[in-house]
Write a structure and sequence with these properties.
The chain is mostly helical. 60% of the residues lie in helices and 3% in strands. The longest helix has 28 residues. It comes from Nocardia africana.
Length: 197
């Protein structure tokens, strides 16, 4: 398993794109921009060029020898390794199922959830919804205990509760749609094979 510093939404996005196909850095950056992930993840241009050598050193990607197409400059193609696929799947399971991660990390996980089977994603987001529901109940109990506090001073808590409820409800509806087949899984015929699937 890679060192923890590599566990980031940016690393997941790069590995997720490489799991689809081997690519050179400019192509990875273009796809991140086309999919809106550069803004969602707040990726800077240099992040990608800093991240690829670290992913390579961790054994999650390998680079091919530089090649030239026509008059274009030489480009190094990166491809994901079986260890990289294992890392993607592991990170997805953690990010999809645990609400402790921030919104950007969860958005990255949703963007590349197709590396896992749809029924597993449904289970993971259901687990996330259960954990959020437990937090909602805990906070509600705290708010009830603070009945002597003027509501204006609890606004930050009630706002956070509204966000939690909205996320929980969305997650439950999303999981139901997956289970009922209302949403198709676009990569159902593509295998993200690794050593421990």
């Amino acid at each position: 398993m890679p060192p923890k510093p590599l566990f980031s939404p940016a690393a997941l996005a790069v590995l997720g794109i490489l799991a689809e196909n081997a690519r050179h850095p400019y192509e990875i950056r273009t796809l991140l921009r086309e999919r809106g992930l550069d803004k969602t993840l707040k990726l800077k241009h240099a992040t990608l060029y800093d991240l690829l050598p670290r992913l390579t050193a961790a054994g999650l990607v390998v680079q091919d020898d530089p090649a030239r197409a026509g008059n274009r400059p030489e480009r190094t193609i990166y491809r994901i390794t079986p260890a990289g696929i294992t890392a993607v799947k592991s990170w997805l399971r953690d990010l999809l199922g645990d609400p402790a991660h921030d919104a950007a990390a969860f958005a990255a996980a949703l963007a590349f959830m197709f590396a896992l089977p749809g029924n597993e994603v449904a289970e993971l987001v259901s687990r996330r919804a259960e954990r959020i529901d437990a937090t909602i109940e805990e906070v509600e109990a705290g708010l009830a205990a603070a009945s002597g506090v003027a509501p204006i001073f609890l606004t930050d808590h009630t706002y956070a509760q509204a966000l939690r409820r909205a996320e929980r409800d969305w997650l439950l509806a999303f999981a139901a749609d997956l289970r009922q087949g209302a949403l198709s899984w676009p990569l159902a015929d593509q295998e993200y094979s690794d050593d421990d699937s």
